[in-house]
Amino acid sequence: MRILITGGNGRLGRTLAPLLSKHGHEVTIVDQSAIESAHPTLIADIRNVDAMSRAVDGQDVVIHAAALHGVHIGTTSERHFIDVGVLGTHNVLEAARAAQVTKVIYISSTSVYGISSTQSRSKAIYVDEDTPLCPIDINDVCKVMGEQLCHYYRRNFQVNASILRVGRFFQDDWVTFNLRKLSGGVDIRDVAQAVLLAVESQYTSEGTFCVAAQTSFTRADIPYLAEYADDVIEQRYPGARVAFARIGRSLPKTVHRVVSIARATHQLHYRPQENFAEFLERLKYTGTGVPVSRFGSAPSGLSI
What we know:
The chain is of the alpha/beta class. It is 40% helix and 13% strand. The protein has ten helices and nine strands.
């Protein structure tokens, strides 16, 4: 298929393009700045409706990954967030409608639930696609509005738009990043795999899917994760406490949420490969937990 990736110069685009190409798809990437890529590239701003119409024309699938992120809050105006996240998404969907593309995949975020590790709460929160949305900042608001535009174009123009609510894949230090996989974090390579599955899925009904790492937590663990997460982690991942102690780290006392990927697993056959369990096994035997690269994006140098 002919696939256009907006925001193709971002972390996800740079990981996704070679994966799609490897699976036989013709990939074009579009970004507002010059791109060094092995794939055909277009320089265009998603805020320009005519530019997006030209970019989308002739494509079978559009993956809309262009966006600002939470890290831009405080350095970027709210108007700029709205221009990119809402107006830009409208332009992409309108161009897709006019070009009659087969599928649009909108990259949203689990931040739409408004659940933060900095919030004080008596228990952790279990999150799935039916959890009420509660945006708390302009980035969250724009993601929710982007999702609503997808629903609008589904209902009124029969645009096949799927929404992937992706967990945090921006990397802290290597250990902290892998601990985040217990509360909705995810490896960028697993996100790319989820997008590939959404592209190639024969599941015809448009849907919304949470994309995060797999955990061993159950609903029964939820009341205890806010205060006794270290004990729960040790129970679900035996040997974790000793493995972390060997590198001078402690298990966290709090895990603020658990993100269910059951729908993506069932309907898209999503099976993340870089979970906390895999990290822990490597940590036990190598002392670093650093994986061998599966494709395109090496974990060394904090390149996620």
